[in-house]
Amino acid sequence: MEISQRTNHEIDFQIHGEEMQCVEIELDPEESAIAEAGSFMMMEDGVQMQTIFGDGSGKEQGILGKLWSAGKRVLTGESLFMTAYTNMSHVKRKVTFASPYPGKIISMDLLQLGGKMICQKDAFLCAAKGVNIGIEFQRKLGTGLFGGEGFIMQKLEGDGLAFVHAGGYVMEKTLIPGEVLKIDTGCIVAFTPSCDYDIQFIGGIKNSIFGGEGLFFATLRGPGRVWLQSLPISRLAARILTYATTKRKEEGSILGGLGNMLDGDGR
Known about the structure:
- The protein is of the alpha+beta class.
- It has 2 domains: 12-231, Mitochondrial biogenesis AIM24 (Double-stranded beta-helix, 4-Layer Sandwich), CATH 3.60.160.10; 240-267, no CATH class.
- The protein is built from 5 helices and 19 strands.
- It has helices spanning 63-75, 141-146, 205-210, 233-245, 253-262, and strands at 12-16, 22-27, 32-36, 40-43, 47-53, 81-87, 93-98, 103-109, 116-119, 124-128, 132-137, 152-157, 161-167, 170-175, 180-183, 188-191, 196-201, 216-221, 224-229.
- Strand 1 and strand 2 form a beta hairpin.
């Protein structure tokens, strides 16, 4: 089957690194990439930065349309503004974007994936100009009340390349029709819209009180493709906060004091 022609900018890229990755994007003259504020790492001479207000697609919008699209992005945890990087020179130039925490960068060709992807609300890193970054509401009542991180998600639409970041190790799974995967809501990075997304209750009083994994989990029913992360940033932040605010009881008084001195916390 012949693949339709792209309308978004066509960009070349290379992902560098292992645990702390960055993506290097090569721009032809007058090509552009869009990125979230704070993801920029470096660029070659000849690339021009421009702040844009809206969804990043580059489509003509009135002020109300731009406010609406920017407001939707705020609901997904992103800033009001995005940055466009355009090659204004007559030769190819490169711009590099870095992942904000340890993990992996995933490249997604939206043309090959049907033109739309649903992602965790803070997963988007950068994309070719023309890709629309919006909001995806999960309309089911159970999902809305108990989905936690999974209720408001990002929506990437277009036919260009988009890049999302994930924490820890990334697993990709292909679900056949009717196949169900039960997942911690924070571990979902992205999935194709063909997957049916829902939230289910973990039955059993022992699970509810002693399970330690919460009362609810997400379910994805195939057909479709799913990307999962082993270490959601929310889980990492919770562990760090617990460690920083709790005294180490597992160490004896002598060893505990010695450990604190070695850590620079001795008084």
